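Archive entry. Fields below.
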Amino acid sequence: MKIYLYKEGLLNLLELITFLLETNRKPDFIKEENYETNLLDEVIDLQRNPRKNLWKNWEKNIGKKALKTILYVYISETKEKELIIYYFLKNALKYKENIFYIRNLKCVNKTIQISERVRHEIHKQKGFLRFKETKNHFLYGEIEPESNILYFLAKHFKERLKEEHFLIHDKKRHLLCVYDTVNVYLIKEEEVKKLEIEYEKEELDIEDLWKTFFQTIAIEERKNERCQKSFMPKKYWKYMIEMEDKL
Amino acid sequence: MTLKEKLIILSDSAKYDASCSSSGSNRKNKEGIGNGALYGLCHSFSNDGRCVSLLKILMTNCCIYDCKYCLNRKSNNQKRAIFTPEEICSITLNFYKRNYIEGLFLSSGIIKNPDYTMEKMIETITLLRKKYHFNGYIHAKAIPGSSNYLVKKLGVLVDRLSANIELPSENGLKLLAPDKKKNKIEEIMHFVKENQSKAFTPAGQTTQMIIGASKETDQMILKQSETMYKNYKLKRVFYSAYIPVNKDKLLPTLNIPPLKREHRLYQADWLLRYYGYKVDQILDENHPNFNILLDPKADYAIRHLNEFPKEINKANYYDLLKIPGIGPTSAKKIISSRKFYTLEMKDLQKMGISLKRAKYFILCNGKYFANKKVFQKEFLINNLILEEEKKENNTNHQLSLWGKNENLSV
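PREDICTED_STRUCTURE:
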């Protein structure tokens, strides 16, 4: 088994794949450098750094949409995301923008399926995320998404809540994203000395108002909890104030 | 009265308005809080399965009108409340900041007269936009009978305006909402259409009809929608299954709201807006109402069996759209893909196209999903009904209950 290693990050992966395609090397696997290999594997670590304009050149070559799609696949953390991206790019060189219509190719179909799932999750999470205002006027929100979508959420809320400080906590990946009204920072949990979250009593009053509104707005004669669940799957409920006690 | 008590009264009276969408505006955040999300965002779903996107409230539930079907009619002995502009701003901003909502949907009972009511609403929304620099989504009701200059003033502040037509016919309106005049409602719609721009109701206008409180057929209802889409460029017509909140000899007595009928109307409305159908194609004097057992497109297909099955690799866009289960997205996917390779059934599945209903009406590369002999009206109807029941059992158990209550009497 030929296993090619790359340093974490989509640009590093893209550089490696570009090199493999240029030199006609066919990988059995592509894995991050901390991947645990066994004795039978032939491990190749090229330690390449991304070349200048790598992303832009790809964009010019196969289109913006294709590049955005592989970004979604990358953050999906699907087990064999690297190989899927490798084969997708290989075919994209041939079919260019039309790549999205060649659904009978397995790698294309997989790529589209995964990217649609990720986009869907980003969309849902933008609506379902809940902030709580802390004592020091930070908006604090917790999530446990399937994919690593923190960057996309930060981008969304940074525009929307320009003048607020916020902190989104991915409890599954132990990642935090902080916005201080100017910049967004991505931080690992272990780099934070102490995360003290405290609320004023007023916060509970507002949550209570929201729960009240949420209950009142439902029409008893139309009750349909199955429908509710299908639009708002249970996995989101944990951090949604109005659903917490339904779990 | 506490803020919480007010919120209960004024959201309870607002809940029957079906519209909650927050789409169509990409208002930017300039030095303040909030922006529009062009495709809209749902922030929650209440236990009736409806999306919660906006803080949907009435400014007040006091009303000088006496519409038979309305909870807030003046003859009802009801607890009344009124929000101050600051109270509405405070709840909106606190909810928005915490990402509970996408914005505000403000409606109101009529106090004193339409102009006075509009002025009060404008005062509130001005405060929200100008003092608090709120750039989130705002949908406001335009009050029929109010002056044009007030509609103009409100329209430049909000993303969307709506005036409810309430009942599908003028007779229905005369009977059940004697204080409301059809021409006043249409005047507003006309005015909004004439003025609509990026700076005036960028997300356009909508309206709503109550279904099942008066005698109109589905054909009359959809004709009304078709006319309004054409004349006033509405973004949406919402259909709201009538739920009895008042007792009145003029109103029907229903135990369960006509949800299934409402569902069929939404499906047909979709056909008008996105599939290029005309009402006359799907309903006529002999079929003035929808088949409760089949969706309108399947019903149409069954009545035009000679046009089917259609070859997926050859049919043009509009023919593809006529296949039950295939919508604009799927049709476009099919057309783009078949340039590169011949499509088989399994290829459609790979694209994420559901074949549950479509398979009965298509040929893929000349092949039918089963022995071609089964392509018979009875067989198709039975299987389509079974598919529909399966779907309902999975997602919408309540809809199937309605069948028992089909005959409305007014």
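CURATOR_NOTE: Chain B touches chain A through 59 residues (CB under 8 Å).
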